Amino acid sequence: MTVSKDLVNGLNVARFQGQRHKTDNLKTEKICLPGTECLVKSHVSLASFTSFRVGGPAEWLVAPKHLNELEASFEWAINRDLPITLLGAGSNLLISDRGLSGLVICTRHLRYTYFDQETGQVTAAAGEPLVRLAWRAAELGWSGLEWAVGIPGSVGGSVVMNAGAHTGCMADILVNAHVLSPNGSLEILTPEKLGYNYRTSLLQGDKRLVTQATFQLKPGADPAKVIATTAQHLKQRHSTQPYNKPSCGSVFRNPNPHKAGWLIEQTGLKGYRIGGATVAERHANFILNCGGAKANDIFQLIHYVQHQVERHWSLSLQPEVKILGEFQPI
Ligand SMILES: Cc1cc2nc3c(=O)[nH]c(=O)nc-3n(C[C@H](O)[C@H](O)[C@H](O)COP(=O)(O)OP(=O)(O)OC[C@H]3O[C@@H](n4cnc5c(N)ncnc54)[C@H](O)[C@@H]3O)c2cc1C
């Protein structure tokens, strides 16, 4: 069985579960972060914060709107010695049914976008949806983000994941990312400092938070042409990938030179089901929540697929999805 790094981190989380159970029956508490109007809330279900639509409660959750609120969130968690989890759009996460201990910092309310006509650069806050940014750029006749239209992540999460599609990826267009450390220090990092590779960066598994990113695009194109290319990419994805049920997109990284989806399909796993989780018929590297799935169903299915592919091909598939929290042992 292959255990991802986040899963190993998840096992650390298990140490806190015993303590948290004592407070399970408590009502939601709301605490105002010192010096701000930002609320930290207890026992917030994370299912609606992930594209899989599964996951238990966050012990504490905060969704800051401004940098000072982010800084106060880090300080609040550090002062209480709480573990911190960073959450973007939750489109690449499998969160345990038992939830997460400590403070979850969600970036969904960090929003702004600025298109600089002189430089052709667009700066977007961490919580901006990548899809929205891609359409905005297309409507302005700025090319360079057409490939991103089917990726339902946030700008921050996509910088961290080095999200990509149709031969484009974040590493190709990133000028810099502003990164806030839990101790309050802010760095401006260029792609060279981020150790980019296929769907990886040095920021993965890190506690530093991307607050905003600047991308180099090409302004001055005919908006109709950029919109047409963007729409074409979306159409192609909808014809090859299942967008009608909750998922995290591709579950496994492609083990070069193979495609994970092809290996899973050839192993005969399309349609294989555990509880409410199924290997998609349309694209075997997708696992779908077909209604009422538990995070644990998805977790078990991930490991079943890994095991079967390893048996057939002697290849170990590595999850692209980040697995957080405590799961039942396989
Ligand atoms: C239908 C579907 C299709 C998809 N297609 C693609 C695709 O074509 N290509 C592709 O690359 N991905 C794809 N994905 C996966 C996913 O959308 C991307 O990985 C996306 O970039 C994740 O962004 P997010 O904001 O959802 O991150 P999350 O899932 O919230 O988090 C992912 C990781 O980044 C960390 N993180 C999030 N925000 C920040 C931040 N601001 N600072 C620091 N760390 C942060 C989290 O802690 C976590 O480790 C798809 C997903 C779905 C559901």
TrEMBL record:
GO terms for molecular function: UDP-N-acetylmuramate dehydrogenase activity. Residues 53-220 form the FAD-binding PCMH-type domain. Its EC number is 1.3.1.98. HAMAP family: MurB. Cell wall formation. PROSITE patterns: FAD_PCMH. SUPFAM superfamilies: FAD-binding/transporter-associated domain-like, Uridine diphospho-N-Acetylenolpyruvylglucosamine reductase, MurB, C-terminal domain. Keywords: Cell cycle, Cell division, Cell shape, Cell wall biogenesis/degradation, Cytoplasm, FAD, Flavoprotein, NADP, Oxidoreductase, Peptidoglycan synthesis. It catalyses: UDP-N-acetyl-alpha-D-muramate + NADP(+) = UDP-N-acetyl-3-O-(1-carboxyvinyl)-alpha-D-glucosamine + NADPH + H(+). It comes from the Bacteria. Its cofactor is FAD. InterPro entries: FAD-bd_PCMH, FAD-bd_PCMH-like_sf, FAD-bd_PCMH_sub1, FAD-bd_PCMH_sub2, MurB, MurB_C, MurB_C_sf, Oxid_FAD_bind_N. It is found in: Cytoplasm. The active site is at R199, S250, E320. The keyword Flavoprotein applies. The keyword Lyase does not apply. This is UDP-N-acetylenolpyruvoylglucosamine reductase. It is an enzyme of class 1 (oxidoreductase).
